[in-house]
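worker-03 picked up job from queue 'complexes'. Input manifest follows; two sequence lines, order preserved.
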Amino acid sequence: MTTAPVPAPGGDARGTVEDPVTVEGRWDFGYTYYAGAAASRFFNELRLNRRIMGTHCPQCDRVLVPARGFCDACFVEIDEWREVGTEGTLETFTILTSSFPGLPEPPLVVGYVTLDGASSAVLNAVCGVDLTDIDAAGLSLLSQPRVRVKFRDVREGRISDFAFELVGK
Amino acid sequence: MRPVYVHGVSVSPSWADPTCSLQDLIFVGVRDALRSAGMSATELDAVVLAAHDLVDGRSLTSMVTAPAAAAYLKDETRVGDDGATAFALADARVRSGSVETCLVAAWGRLSEGPVDAISHALFDPFTTRPLAMTEIGVSGLRATRALAEHPGYAAHREAAAARRDQRAGDPGRTPAPAWPLRPAELPVWSDVVAAVVIGSAPTAVEVLGVGMGTEPFELGDRDLLGLPALSAASGQALDEAQRGIAEVDVLELDGMTLFDEALAMEAVGAAARGGGMAALATDHRVDPVGAAARGYAAPAMGLAHIARAGERLADGEGRTALATGSSVVAAQSQAAVVLGTA
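worker-03 finished. Artifact:
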């Protein structure tokens, strides 16, 4: 007879019964999200025609970008499509430092831009900003400069089919 | 409609305590709220719980955790929203006469998961997630706009941060920053359980008013500085309480970063437009150590602020308190509660 703990085959007899136990967990499911008719056309217009399209609400007279199938403020369906400009105003921005798999490496400037003819702002990357000095870069963009859309050569029907760049750069 | 009173509160902050499971943390927090109320679990008629599966890393998290929150064989409701919204629902249950007593509990244990990645997963897969957006990123967008529009924000941000005394967190407890936010302006992640017991029997602190508001889904449609949902929610709560903001002497406003708190001050009318950051630096209605003491853990913070407001009133800091809670994503929905000394 022995008083020493007898581990199961391959077991570990170290430690005490008070040792905290943890287990690793991971959620890694695949989803297929449906964009719906309005958003699908918005993304396909980017891919096929290099156009940024909004939908016009007849009640509040706003042109909503990205395009959508209803106006949530008026709660009505909207299906009048309008092309908006490819220049606009950088309403606000931030410089992100989080790194996520498959996404652009930080630091990354992203900003909301109200394109000419649109009533709402759309988020996208602002490229071509010298980020050697992050504070200097941020301060240089505070004046809400004009930006323009730059389409990628290879487009996939994604928001990343375009980015913004500063006008005059 | 019956009056509703606060019977007991508890806010339990911790971080990565390996001796406690999530259920243990919830049990202790709820037990402490019941002790504060001088009640046993059997005296509760109903329970309302706020939790997020994504934060907890458990599907149908409240199914696992509800018994730890005294919900066994109780009239129980679960919401996937901030704890302040759960409080609003509990208040309605008591005020309507459906139940006499109700426990509200909300929790978030951020030490168990990758907070930045969870925050990123909350965003829309078509328009914002591909651009690496997170909750801190949205706060960065608000902060940039505030600095551009309100010169007072730059002038007072250091003083406001110093008064708040937000200590730098241990590794894993602070988010990746987003310019222009500075480390002292960021939250320190925490494991928080907040619990409040309310009921129809009179106590020293009465629930005078409740309000809620929701903004558009698309961030590009929103007034990022004006926080109209918060204005609507606080206005509704104050109207119901028949109080003006000038009568409020205790403020417990939910904000993930210093800039979010400053803008919240303006949205509820406690500071003039552009004056939110200066108010944070000097306004004694704001509890400067509250955020630092608890850390931040969605979706518990709204209820934590309500609990703290009740404590401050009970401690004699004032006669009327306004507490708010904001939900993910990007504070789209807001709930506000006005408490008063009876």
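worker-03 released lock.
The two ends of chain B are 17 Å apart (CA to CA).
The mean pLDDT of chain B is 93.
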